[in-house]
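User: Can you help me understand a structure? I only have the sequence.
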Amino acid sequence: MELIYKKMTINVNNQSQSILENSSIKKLLEQLDILPNGIAIAINNEVISKEKWEQTMIENDDDIVIIKATQGG
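Assistant: Let's start by predicting it. Here is the structure, written out as tokens:
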């Protein structure tokens, strides 16, 4: 039997992305090939602490901002 994976559409840094349903923040980063080091994530303007990335589920049409820390000044 073939497994059917449902997709949903979200907005990541103002770009539409199609990801698997029932994805956590951690799974989203894996799907987008983004390393979790040195980044911050906000969903619908609410910053999510790194400790909660595994349990925080992403919903259809969520607006996600991924901010990468930069060195220098």
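Now, to help you interpret it: The first strand starts at residue 7 and ends at 12. The beta strands are 7-12, 15-20, 39-43, 46-48, 63-68. Let me know which part you'd like to focus on.
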